[in-house]
What we know:
74% helix; mainly alpha; 15 helices; MetI-like fold
Amino acid sequence: MMYWIQRLRSPFVRSILGDYVFIAPQLILYVGLTLVPLIIALPMLFTDRLDFNDIDVDYIGFQNITRVFIDPSISTDYVPALVRTVRFTVINYLMVYVFGLTLALVIYEVGFRGGFFTVIYLPMMISGVAVGYIATMLFSKSTGTVNLLLLDLGWIKEPIDIRLESGSTIILPIIIGWKYAGFNLAIFLSGLLSIPEETIEASIVDGAAYLQRLLRVYFPQMAPAFIIATIFCLLGSFGVFDEPMAMGAFNTNPGLRFLSVVFYAYGFTQQRLALGMTLAVQTFVPLVVLAYLLQQLQKRLAYY
C-alpha cells in the first residue's frame, strides 16, 4: 500500500494524472455522445428499422450493406452525392492552404501578434447554420453585398447565383475556409515554430531566396503539420452539414446534397433509418482507415 502511495506522490505520476484530469471532460463527452451511441446502433445496420419508433423490426442480414451496389434507386442518390462531396473536399483542401498556411506564414515572418490571431480565430465561434445564412446574404443574386461590389468593380458580368450548383461549389469552400482559418493557422504555425532556427539561418547565409527556403527548408520540416491538416480537412469535409442545410440543400439548391445530407434524408425524412446509418458507416470506415494511415505516417515523419 505504501508503495502505491509513494508512486502517486512522484512528480512523473502526478503529471500524468494531471493530464488525464485535464482531458477527462472532453473524453467523457466523446465516449458518451459518440462511441457509446455508435456501438449501440451497430446492430441496427442489419435490420429494416424505419425510424426510432418502429417496433416491427426484422433482421435482414447484409441487405443494407449490399443495396448501395445493386439498388439503382440508392446508387442514383449516393453516387452523385459522393462526387459532390469529393469535389468539395478537393476545393476545401485548397482553401486550407490559401487561408491557414498564408496567414501562418504572415504571422511567422512578421511576428506573432495575439490580437491578430484572436481576430482570425473568432469565426470558429460562429455556428455552421449562421455561416450558411451569412453566405446566402452576401451572395444573394439581387441584393448580396459581395455580388454588388464585384459588379461595381467590373470583375464579374453576371451576379453569382448561390442557389445554383455552379455558384455554391466555389462559395461554400471559401466560406468554410474563412471559418476554419484560425484552426488551420494554429496547425501550420505550430509546424513553423518547430523548425530549428539554425536551418533557416544557414539557408539565408547560403543565399537561398525566400521561395527556395519555403520549398526546401520550411515545407519539408512541416510535413507532420500538413498531414494533420489533411486529416482534419478530410473528416470535416465529408461531415459538413450545417452550412449546406442553411444554404438550401433540401429545397432550393440540390447541388449541395452532399453525403451527410443524403444520410440525414434517408434516416429522418424518408423513414429509412437503418439504411441511412448503414450508408454512413460504409463511408465512415474507409475514412477512419485512411486517417489512421496518415496519422502513422505523421508519427514517422515527426520521429525522423
